[in-house]
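Posting this for the archive.
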Amino acid sequence: MADDPQNTPGTSHENDQDEPGTATGTAHQVEAGKGAEGDQTDAVKTERAAREAAEKRAESAEAEASRLRRSNAATKGTDLDALRSEIRQEFTAQLVRAELRAAAAGRLRDPADALALLDVSALAGSGGDIDAAAVAAAVDQLVKDKPYLAADQGTAPAWGDVGAGQREAAEPEPATPLDRLRRAYGDG
């Protein structure tokens, strides 16, 4: 029994009652219950400590990312001339589209056709100026190349009179049904 793992000193319940300075069986059970609660509180404390450490790491990572962004912006710098050039190109393209719509307004059935079919970037002059003569020439060329896009300017309708609609009668309508029959049979 000396080699029995269950019969080692301090684990025997019989010895607990007899040995001085050791808890009785019931006291040992109470301490075991406290131990379970103690384990739970230790687990909660450990979890809280881990959460706090993770939050601190996240805060420091955010601070480091912010610092790196500031550092990157300071060393990278912004090319103001490139930004101005890009904005100027966008603005010029908008002005050319507006000028093209205005030039095509009376010449084409749908001015949006001019925007779809013409190269807007080719119509901008040097330095961002709009070449009004080039815009007018482009619309003229579009009307010559695709005449079906041209607006109707006082021309006759595309199809003739099909006889629909109200007409004036050549003779007045007969007053009575008898007069109508006489006209139909040629007696009148």
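The helical segments are 13-18, 25-76, 80-104, 112-117, 132-145, 177-185. The chain is about 60% helix and 0% strand.
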